[in-house]
Amino acid sequence: MLGFLSDYTIQNVALGAALLGVISGVLGCFAVLRKQSLLGDTLSHAALPGVCLGFIIAGARQIGFILAGALVTGALAALLMLLLTRNSRLKTDAGLGIALSVFFALGVVLLTFIQSTGNASQGGLDSFLFGQAAAILRSDLWVMGVVTAVALSIVSLLWKEFKLVSFDPVFAASLGYPVLVLEVALTVMIALAVVVGLQMVGVVLMAAMVIAPAAAARQWSGRLETMVILSALIGMASGISGALVSALGPGLATGPLIVLAASAAVAVSLLFAPGRGLLWEIIRRARNRRNLRGKRVLTTLYRLAAHHHDSGYPSEQGMVDAYHGVGTTPVLKRLQARGLVEPVTHIPETTPHWTLTQAGIEEAESILTNLGKQES
Q: pTM for the whole thing?
């Protein structure tokens, strides 16, 4: 196992995946909170023409030029989206869709142009579409590390401003904050995250790395501080686990496995997150239905007692069953356990009878009072 982890390529891939998970997890939180989940998809696709332009300018596959080109075109796509949404009647999703289509089409055109030139250095350039983690070098990690450090530093310095703009941009503008500048800064930061992940997971899958960790973390926390930390940890864990699984399984692509790991985290969060998960929602609905049945049976016993002008009137269980159309034994047992009803004998009848306790009378009166207020 130690020999496996000491492999140079595996170390590079795992470290690169961890850096990608951290930066995409942190910055993806702001995209999710601003309801711009499509932003990651737009910026990742818009990075393709930048990759091609970086290659054309450098004349070779140099990671520095390629990432710089990707950042520039990603930022331009984001600015185009902001211009379209602020100066027209287009909604954000329409602006993002236009920017995505235009820049990705331009990227495909440039990619086919490069392939037609016969430049021998173009080999592997199309790997930026789906990623090629095994090609990451230690020098690439330094570039990724610097970009990650810069992005996290900016988030730390402008934490209060980014937080306010994400939750209430109108209030931020009323306080005098430069909302447009902050939104542009956040968008460019997300473009940085996209740039970091291009070589790891590629243009097509990078959108998932921006959104998935943040979407998973959102299910576990109601505070931005906790959400950002959880998102970074989920992103890092997804990146490392996907890289290790890829190394253990020959022929398995690293990028898709990282995305699948992040998607699995989202699925688990949607199912089991306390208070928000689907499982808890199912339990909550079942509990509400059970409580509703209990309230209905309790008020039925109360009305029967009121009709007979006897607070201790023994109601026959068969009559209560007939009224509700279902067997009420489990409900009555639960009410008995709460001290709201109690079984009684009613000679000469031998069938089960139930009567309200004083606590049951008070509970039924409270339910009927609240119901009357809601109806009025």
A: 0.77
